[in-house]
Amino acid sequence: MKAIIEKILKQAGVEGVIQLTMPPNPAMGDLSFACFDLAKKMGKNPAEAAEELAAGFRVKPGMTIEKVQAMGPYVNFFFHAGASAKLVLRQIKKEKNKFGASLVKKGEKILIEYPSNNTHKEVHVGHLRNICIGNALVKLYEMAGAKVIPINYINDFGVHVAKCLWGLNNLQKGKKSLANKQKWLGQVYAEASKFLAEHPEKKEEIKDYLRQLESKDKKIWKLFLTTRQWSLDGFVKIFKELGIKHQTTFFEKDVKDIGQKMVGELLKKKIAQVGEGGAIIMDLKKYDLDIGLLRKSDGAGLYLTSDLGLAKVKAKKFPKVTQSVNLTGTEQNFYFKQLFKILELSGFKYQMTHVSYELVSRPEGKMSSRLGNVVLYEDLRDEAIALAESETKKRHSDWRAVKIHSTALALALGALKFSMIKVGPKQTIIFNIKEALSFDGFTGPYLQYSIARMNSILKKSSVKSNSTDLTILQSSAEKQLVLKLAGCAAVTAESAMKNDPSQLAKYLYEIAKLFSDFYEKCPVLKAEKAELRSARLELVKATKLIMENGLQILGVPVIEEM
Question: What are phi and psi of 275, to 5 degrees?
Fold first, then answer.
């Protein structure tokens, strides 16, 4: 609908980028154009410019625009309800799940790296937020016309691995492991971290373990490979459940030596320098990025060293990438600024983007794998399923156990995923499982229930018509719902451009609320006329399609019946 207004404004002589906004209430119009910039060009005050612009429009019968009116410095446009319904609903019916697509990223080839998790640690609720945002961005980029390559980079080396292996050898002898070995390794790491913090004299032992890892010493290499595989097996199961599909997975153990060679090359080219004690550094102070440490004085690599190697491997494997996206927590903002500047100075040409997000906290405070106070994804999922099963049994005591469980699983995953996405990436989430599972308010189950209600309406209907007169949808509730559906492409485009799936989540919630208002005020199955009943059913179908498409982008399961 915005495209219609933009076209007539350009025909009226308005130049440049046209910004349209929604008035504070429908009585003031459906879209507004501010005349401040136009007034400067005309040499008039904004109100006069608005009056003159509005007076130049001629509304004719059958047009989508019903009225144009100047209100102060704004020109407000009113859409004709019936004409809008005909235009929008026919387009949705024709385009189906392609409705809402845009071309804002057409021609781009985007590499997106997530969730960049670590072996020998558990998958916790913080990883869940990363995964949910990453999955949604992949779909949003695709909706925007880009070719998307999802990859993962797993940190399977470093201090955390050394601590875990040390803990297995020194704190777990004679103890039985958990059946879930991925979870057990996380517990061992947390226990070892706590013990080592209380016994600093053991610090040299951890350094020795690191040296053994670096040299692939047979004393610990077999244990490393075995435990590493335990972690990877656990990741496969969780990633499948959460809908992650990586095209390629890279590992730190395979790129760290390449990174070390790159550091040597940077030193030869005098891009890097020898710093204090023999460490290799890059002076980034003139970019307000302090000193970048590329190699320790003892020759050992760091995260930065390995990330240089990873960048080289990615560039070789995917040479035509136009943008490389990293998705991590905001605490790594400065690190990625350093990394991207070093890569830029090293000759990397493609656009590098760091999409950051705030962490997930419990009401008690911040979580930490090292401290062992994280909420594990699997524990959270199981708790959510139990609560959802209890609620489903209350509502449907006649359902079979299999149907109750499958519905509960979909509700649980919907609640968890939506709660991770509905808040903008720059906002911290204080997670509350009971709030996430609520059927009221801004939650996944509320949206799932809205679709189930639409399904119920459509199942009870026997109307099958291809010649429905959609122009009879004249009420305010019908019009507002139609116009909201029309804005789908603008929302998905904005979500993709701003790397913010919460924009789409809010949009779907607004649709659900408008549908609820429409359902209350506009009888569908009991409409006074058959023609009106048929038209309203088409509106229900279109709303259901947009809602289902949106939830699919966000990774939230659709439930047919609740």
Answer: -100, -160
Strand partners, 251: 154
Separation CA 492–CA 97 (nearest Å): 13
Cα first-last separation, the chain: 34
Helix (H, G, I), strand (E, B) or coil at 297: coil
Mean pLDDT by 10-residue block, N- to C-terminus, for the chain (562 residues)? Answer: 89 90 90 95 94 91 89 96 95 95 95 96 93 98 98 94 96 89 93 94 94 92 97 96 96 95 96 94 97 93 95 95 96 97 93 94 60 78 96 93 96 97 94 93 97 96 76 96 96 97 98 98 95 96 98 97 90
State the pTM of this model: 0.92
Go through the chain and tell me how many residues it has.
562
Kind of pairing, strands 31-34 and 273-274?
unpaired
> Around Cβ 387, how many Cβ atoms within 10 Å?
18
Phi, psi of 297 (to 5 degrees): -65, -25
208 CB-near residues (< 8 Å, 6+ apart): none
Distance CA 332, CA 158 (A): 17
Query: Beta strand pairing status for 31-34 and 20-21?
Result: antiparallel
Cα separation of 273 and 267, whole Å?
6
CA angle 29, 35, 36 (to 5 degrees): 135
- Paired strand residues for 544: none
Distance CA 113, CA 130 (A): 10
Write the pLDDT tens digit of every residue in 165-192.
Answer: 999 999 998 888 889 999 999 999 999 9
In what helix (H) or strand (E) does residue 195 lie, and over which residues does it extend? helix 181-198
